[in-house]
Design brief:
Elements: H1 3-16, H2 25-28, H3 37-54, H4 59-68, H5 73-76, H6 92-100, H7 105-120, H8 124-146, H9 153-162, H10 166-177, H11 182-188
Helix pairs in contact: 3-4, 3-8, 4-7, 4-8, 6-7, 7-8, 8-9, 8-10
Amino acid sequence: MTGDETGLAGLLYEFGLLKRYKRTGWLVAGVRDPESVAEHSFRAAIIAAVIARLEGGHPERAAFMALFHDTQETRITDIPYIGKRYLKAASNEEVTADQVRPVTEPVADMVRDAVAEYEEKASVEAVCARDADKLECLIQAVEYREQGHQNVQGWIDSSLAAITTATGKRLAEEALRTGTLDWVTRVLNGD
């Protein structure tokens, strides 16, 4: 096996940690078993594709950036928002550069470019991916609220305030009006 393959295998194992790392902010809200970073990123990628398509961007690129937007948390973990007041973490671009250092240059460039574009809000797709991150958080908060967690309104409010695209805002408003299982009733009724 070449060094490139060893580095790539290591990166794949490292990113796999995101399936085990929990989104820690939800612990503050009293959620005992919150979603993982990977679960958040999966739905954020789907949302990013939808928003980008409706905003005239490339859904594939937006989804791609959303998949990588939190990969740095393998190294710095998911620092809760309140903790960020007291901690100075390395930038996501710095962490990503360290993560991809041992991998082949085409892959390293691909990941670094996606993270940089996302962080710089350098394209409509990046803006859509960022909105998707916030909309996913809002939707998750609504789901947790329906499961009986009462301390999630702050996440709903801050997520809603951070969404910038017209499509993201419309989807957020609809998510707040719609019950999380309303779609099941519509399917069962043949709608």
